[in-house]
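User: Please predict the structure of the protein below. I'd like the answer in structure-token form so I can feed it into my own downstream comparison script.

Assistant: Understood. Taking the following sequence of 348 residues as input:
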Amino acid sequence: MKALMKTAGGVGKVRVQHVPTPSPGQGEVLIRVQVACVCGTDVHIYYDRFANSPPIILGHEFSGVIESIGTGVEAFRKGDRVVSANNPFACGACAICKRGYPNMCPQKKAMGIHSDGCFAEYVKLPANLIHRIPDNISFEEASLMEPLAVATHAVSHRCSIEQGDTVVVFGPGAIGILAAQVARAENAKNIVLVGTTRDEAVRFACADELGLETLNIEKVGKEGLQRRIDDLTAHAGADVVVEASGSTSAIACGLEMLRKNGRMAISGITGKTKLPIAWDQMVSKAVSLFFCYSSINSDWEKALDLLADKKVQTLPLITHRFELEQWKDAFDKLEKLEAVRPVFQIGA
């Protein structure tokens, strides 16, 4: 089968090549990939800025059809339309797995990062990660289930939204746009999606299509954002801040925007080992910080319900479509912020 691989450590070392089609073993299924999305993590792996374990097939966001089933799998059949959570090799036996968080298991090997992923014609995965796609969801819509599950984990599972909340989201990439939609689905009253001039042409256009309010902080400044939040909250401050940008200035700004007893869901990666934090201010406001990583099965179930009920839309985030051999063009589009999510049409 064809697969896009990171063949060795270092910058680059990525190419399409032919590899054997895997066979499902005990408790596994083989999935014929239909649509796969390119994530910023894939670009970081290309540059070797994100820890990875080559040689591996890249990719962790996809939808597909079950092609064959290993022994011991009774919940699925050949032909089922499916997506998969990204917690392969979680042991299921350690204390953190038993608490229901396989995403944090020390034995976990995320697909496309530390185990073979979905930028291929087929991917083999444990059946306990698999979820059926509802009939009213297309393969393209379902291909963004992984970032939607991550957004659901951060906004709904970790932080939670209360009816009438004012929510500020920093970072209008896929996670930020999806997090804003999840907050709206959870009955937030006001949502402001904050970005920069680089986000205006594509990312803000996508948010506008989804009916989300956007704000370019480079144009209005921190003071302009503060005025908007003051107008929405009668100077009380934001109830929730979602940090999905990884920007240190956004983190600082978000902490300032929070009301007393406010909540921050943090999923952005800064790439830094130390950050200047207004610690005393956070103590005096008694804010709650929720650091968020990956997702668990219940997030996938809730996210699939949101998508099936049309409370969240993913299709507008797909801005470009490519063949697998055009992977460099897809990576370039995402890196230059000329795409929200490029996809590979592998089997579609």
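That's the full token string. The longest helix spans residues 217-233.
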